Amino acid sequence: MSDPKLFQLTDEDKSHYREIIEKIDPAHSLSITRVIGSKISGMLDEGNLNSVEVALIDDITILMGILKLNPELPKSVVKKILFAMMYFVDENDEIPDVIPGYGYLDDIKVVEWVINDIRDQIPPLVKS
Fold first, then answer.
1. Is position 8 within any domain?
2. Closest Cα to residue 115, out of 73, 84, 72, 71?
3. Which DSSP category does 119 fall into?
4. C-alpha dihedral sign at 99, 30, 116, 18
5. Total domain count for the chain?
6. Average pLDDT, 10 consecutive residues per value, the chain (128 residues)
7. Crossing angle, helix 75-89 and helix 29-46, to 10 degrees?
8. Which pLDDT does position 128 carry in this prediction?
């Protein structure tokens, strides 16, 4: 099983991701969220999810709920959530998702980073 501590986001990573976040158009939120379901279904179909993959699916589900239940979120928060979702569905990100046991380490770190970054700007739905 993979250890989420094996992958850490550097300040350079975060800076690069912030640049990408700034360019995201929240108007594309529906097209981004549509892809999430098939990505999660594919993971579930493969079976034998490890703890990182289960936590990742839980966190993505939380982010989707936040978007759906809070249409008045600040644009900056919406962009960060959409970035986390886009990163999750990108199979060829920093660590390709097809690498067994390790492919989702970067995804979980990016999603956790976004959740921690927006935590104070959303209603108290996100787990601690």
1. no
2. 84
3. G
4. positive
5. 1
6. 70 96 92 90 90 95 92 95 96 90 94 94 64
7. 40
8. 45
Determine the residue type at 16: H
Alpha helices in the chain (DSSP H): 11-23, 29-46, 51-69, 75-89, 105-118
- CB-CB neighbours of 6 under 10 Å: 13
Query: The domain containing residue 95 runs over which residues?
Result: 29-121
| Amino acid letter for position 13 | D
Residue 62 and residue 122 in contact, taking contact as beta carbons nearer than 8 Å: no
Q: Distance between CA 109 and CA 9 in Å, rounded?
A: 7
- Kindly state whether residue 47 falls inside one of the protein's structural domains: yes
Q: Report the distance separating Cα 72 and Cα 56, nearest Å.
A: 25
Q: Determine, yes or no, domain membership for 66.
A: yes
Tokens of residue 43, six digits: 């993971």
pTM: 0.89
CA-to-CA distance for 15 and 43, rounded, in angstroms? 29
What would the two tokens of residue 46 be?
């493969």
Query: How many residues make up the chain in this entry?
Result: 128
